[in-house]
Amino acid sequence: MQRVYDFLRGHPAWVDGFWAVVLFGISMLGDTVRATPDAVSLTGITVVTVLLSVVVALRRRMPERMLLLAGAVGVAQLVLDIKTVPADFAFLVIVYTVAASGPRWASRYALIGGLLASPLAQLRWPEDGPSGAGRLALMIFTAVPYALAWVLGDSLRTRRAYFAQLEERAARLEREREAQAKVAVAAERARIARELHDVVAHNVSVMVVQADGAAYVLDTAPDQAKKALETISGTGRQALAEMRRLLGVLRTGEHQEGCEYVPQPDVEQLGELIEQCRTSGLPVDYRIEGTPRPLPSGVELTAYRIVQEALTNTRKHGGPNTGASVRLVYFDDGLGLLVEDDGKGAPHEHYEEGGADGRGHGLIGMRERVGMVGGTLDAGPRPGGGFRISALLPLKPAH
Question: Is residue 318 a contact partner of residue 286, using CB atoms and an 8 Å limit?
């Protein structure tokens, strides 16, 4: 049964053609044809029946044209005195069809024509017996089916428009969800890229400096070389621990045996970071001003990463015999950072244009981090030589 239903829905023209044949057969076998001895009248009835059957057969393919054809057939019936036949049922069908799927002008035309059809038929072929009030009641009664057909068709049109609007809204929401998902993925990728850059750049630079130092004093001072190798080992383990933490974020819900996850670094760990830099050969002056207090985790992570990246850049671009200073200032409404060095500073294109060929990403990451917490960052050369990075991180996020 379902297959038959699906077939009929997939071939509406065949269904309309079938009902057109049925309507034609009923009309030609009805009492009106048998009671018409005149050949001319019989020909007129036959032509009207054929045309109205065509209206039913083609009503979905060309509803406007079939409406006009039905109107012309109705006028011809009035003019040629061809009384109503069973095929006139096509008028109800075309009124319903146009109200459901035709343009608005055709729908209004069908409603007006349908409401006028019954009074015009009563006036053209008056019934014997009923009084004036009875005829008026009969006109109204016979006009009701046309009004109902139009209301049913218009209700179907409204329902289709409602479902189309729901589908369009669902499609739009789906597109918006996809766009939001893409933005979220891009933001997460950028966050992970910043974390990887900060972890790898800092720890690898420390390991490179220590390895160079160990190679230089390997023969003359084996104790110093051993200490440098221990520093490389410790730095490597720290880098691996932070890398595992980042991978743990990506593997949500999974736990691998042997993985060591560490918490996000914060301001309290700046002392360890600076001591690590001092051990690697970079003298750093570290000062804290104001009253230390707990800060939002995002602000603490941003402050740690800024200092880490700034000191990494000092080791990379400062040159030999370079010193640095880190100043941490607690304000009532924010946290201030000032990192300076007395080296030769980074190349101009690294901090002005973001660098090329993969260079300058550290400063780009700094600006992105500061922007995420609603702060401000200024980076550039010092007037007396060296490089200077200052940042102000508010305690309340920007709206």
Answer: no
